[in-house]
Amino acid sequence: MRLVAIRSVTAGAKLAKSIYNDNGQILLYEGVELTERSLTRLYELGISFIYIYDERTHGIEIETGVSLETKRKAIRTIKSEFKGIANHLKLKKSFNIDHFNKDFAKIVRAILTDIKNNENALTLLSDMFVYDSYIFTHSLNVSIYTLGLAVDLGFSDKKLMEIGMGSLLHDIGKMTIPVDILNKPGKLTDEEFKVIQSHSMAGFEILRKAPNISLLSAHCALQHHERLDGTGYPRGLKSNDIHLYAKMITIADVFDAVTSNRVYRKPMLPHEALELLYSGVGKQFDQDLVKAFRRTVAVYPVGLTVTLSDERVGIVVKQNKQLSTHPVVRIIKENGIELTEPYDIDLMERYNITIVETEATLAAATST
């Protein structure tokens, strides 16, 4: 299977990985022949990249790092609990925070189990899900990326639970924001942006009242929009005044935001998102954390078509977790000629050869 930008797919291509809604029901089955109508509909639903059949990639296995079942259960819980909190807040009623804590702790433990049992770099680009709210999937993705980073850094189990809860619930305060502002597709007014900014403090207030949620987890909600140079909010904290957990969540938060399809912006690929993070090192993001984060995510996802520095074209077939910028690539074109017998090269063993371009990037940039 090959990973391609949906706007570059032509009618007649066959879907290589089923697409689900957030209830786990299949919307489009693997093997179906794609039509112009179905491709347009998928794009409108927020699917930017899909897997299509390609004989040259036979035998490729897609490993995301967290199981499909874990993600399904997590999304159901996040969706149910967040909506429940929103309704109680709207009616100015109290809610069962103890029950709320237990449900989310189960999600964190399940994610941690999957990450610790996984030998590959994390990639969520291959998730073929259609969600009814960005907040639900974003909360899950940020927790997966943050926990992947925390496991890489060797945090204790107690700290992993703290940061897991904090990252999973970092945006809980958005349940206090009016829906018309939260889901506004166009540019926010200055007043609307101030309302959006209030979610950090609102989330902190919700979480700090929970008897079984660490105060450090609550501070993740409060500080995840702070920046090293003091340009963040709500308090304009600088460098050492920002808790380590919040610094980690900030990186995962930005990475997932820019790699997700939004109404007002096309998504970046992982390597582009990492370039964005590196451009903010020292000003917005901690350098050592960004370096560690690069180790945990798949810079070039399996199935992606890439051009190498020696002008050969290939498809990523396997990750090297030790150095995700140098995966195993199956060469399909050499000297401008399509090969009848593709072959694999491991870029970990060929440091003089690098990836310089991706087909999906080009397709996304030229599509309208």
TrEMBL record:
Coiled-coil spans in chain: none
Cross-referenced CDD domains: HDc
SUPFAM superfamilies named among the record's database cross-references: HD-domain/PDEase-like
Pfam families in UniProt: HD_5 (PF13487)
Residue stretches making up the HD-GYP domain: 113-309
PANTHER family hit by this protein: CYCLIC DI-GMP PHOSPHODIESTERASE PA4108, CYCLIC DI-GMP PHOSPHODIESTERASE PA4108-RELATED
UniProt-recorded name of the protein: HD-GYP domain-containing protein
Species per Swiss-Prot/TrEMBL record: Halalkalibacter alkaliphilus
